[in-house]
Amino acid sequence: MKTPARAPRPAAAVIGGGISGLIAARELAVAGFTVTVLEASDAFGGCVAAHEVAGLTLDAGAESFATRTTAVVDLLEELGLGGDVVYPAGAGAWLHAAAGARPLPQTGILGIPGDPMADDVRAVIGQTAALRAAADLAMPVGRSLAEGTMSLGELVRHRMGHTVLDELVTPVVSGVHSADPDTLDVDAVAPGLRAAVVEHGSLARAVASLRAAAPAGSAVGGLAGGMNRLTAALVAELADRGAELKLGARVTRIGRDDDGYTLSIGEPDEAVTANRVVVATDGPVAVDLLARLDPDLAAYRPEPGAGVSLVTLVLDRPELDGEESGGGPRGSGVLVSPDAPDVVAKALTHATSKWGWLADEAGPGTHVLRLSYGRLSEAKAAIADAEDAALFATALADAAALLGVDLAEQDVLGWDVVRYAGALPYATTGHKQRVAGFRAALDAFEGLDAVGAWLSGTGLAAVVADTRARTRISVS
Ligand SMILES: Cc1cc2nc3c(=O)[nH]c(=O)nc-3n(C[C@H](O)[C@H](O)[C@H](O)COP(=O)(O)OP(=O)(O)OC[C@H]3O[C@@H](n4cnc5c(N)ncnc54)[C@H](O)[C@@H]3O)c2cc1C
């Protein structure tokens, strides 16, 4: 008896091997596609990568994920990493401002307090500003709040006053998103917050309810060994499933004919064909590639995201070990208010104080600090582009000021600078509507989709959830 010929598996290509591209590739591979991942650089993972400093393998980019949903934990469990999910050690972060350093109030979202009159809130903004913020609890919620678009800054200023915005929200938001809260779409950076304000009749109650509803007690989680293990696990699974994983493969053009899509890589004579294509690059690159298929898509080209330079210092300074309760002199790290005159960095993460697994790996007295540079529209932004040696010297001085401990070059066991150009896209006001418009226009092209932080919003929780939702739809 003749065996019927098996239909060839349909081919899919993913452009960009960052986390969104790797997740899209996994969804497509699971759905039965033969998958090729085309990554321009010499490593997979994009912003979720590893580097080695003083013999320690550390996260070179993302080091945690938001726990407001179970999106990341669910994925980690599927990849067999669920047992390695960890949460930061007890001590929270601090705020460093012109007025001094104080613990960041604990029960907030993006710095917005869940209880404006809490002691730790009043310690930062003072009694008068706390009373103004508490007026939010009694103010009616107007219809305009539920409709149209709104920036994070607008919402906070309206409900709680400018001091909460300037002294609590701006330092957190510029640390996480490298953006001014007045430019950020509240629905993109704090999904569900506006609806919760309407439901609970106050911003503070909305924040408190969202925090209480978060699946884990901590606002963020991580992975023992570093978030870079997520990249390694996705790459390993894709290899197991027979995906072709190409590095140094910069896609320069997407062509289309009756049989599907042809992707040109670097030189025009190298090409990959596929019936399904997922574009998982940054926004400007994605739009430039797609606008060749439909020039109208060019209208959706976003501004390049903010650049950020990270300086990692590994120090031999037992003074940073901190108290028995865990945590160094400034807990898990310090967010810097733009008005702080003495510090150029926008944030410092005390990684060995934040993550128990890393403290164990580094050993007593050895500390890992990570400082980030690259503020918006400020003189302080220029340092991010300085040479490595200048950044290192600035980072050492900033770390000393932020931690209140003298630090000298002889304390440094190793250091590294990692630069991300345009890696933090801004979800500006109207983001949701623009994404919907862009994706509706893309729907005209069968088998073509786009994912990534420029569409989902920055952060692993957003990227993982959106990429999985999109690529599942596109393979159904
Ligand atoms: C320094 C830093 C720290 C962060 N920390 C956190 C954190 O702690 N927690 C958190 O949740 N989020 C964090 N984020 C944000 C989070 O890492 C990102 O939102 C997420 O990783 C973005 O994934 P992506 O796949 O959309 O984009 P990317 O990681 O930017 O990947 C895009 C990929 O596309 C490739 N590419 C571009 N053009 C082409 C082309 N023409 N052809 C082929 N390939 C191409 C790029 O080389 C890159 O690998 C951080 C980001 C940065 C920069």
Automatic annotation (TrEMBL):
Residues 19-438 form the Amine oxidase domain. The keyword Oxidoreductase applies. It catalyses: coproporphyrinogen III + 3 O2 = coproporphyrin III + 3 H2O2. Its cofactor is FAD. The keyword Cytoplasm applies. Pathway: Porphyrin-containing compound metabolism; protoheme biosynthesis. Its EC number is 1.3.3.15. Pfam families: Amino_oxidase. It is found in: Cytoplasm. Keywords: Cytoplasm, FAD, Flavoprotein, Heme biosynthesis, Oxidoreductase. Its main location: cytoplasm. Belongs to the protoporphyrinogen/coproporphyrinogen oxidase family. Coproporphyrinogen III oxidase subfamily. Involved in coproporphyrin-dependent heme b biosynthesis. Catalyzes the oxidation of coproporphyrinogen III to coproporphyrin III. This is Coproporphyrinogen III oxidase.
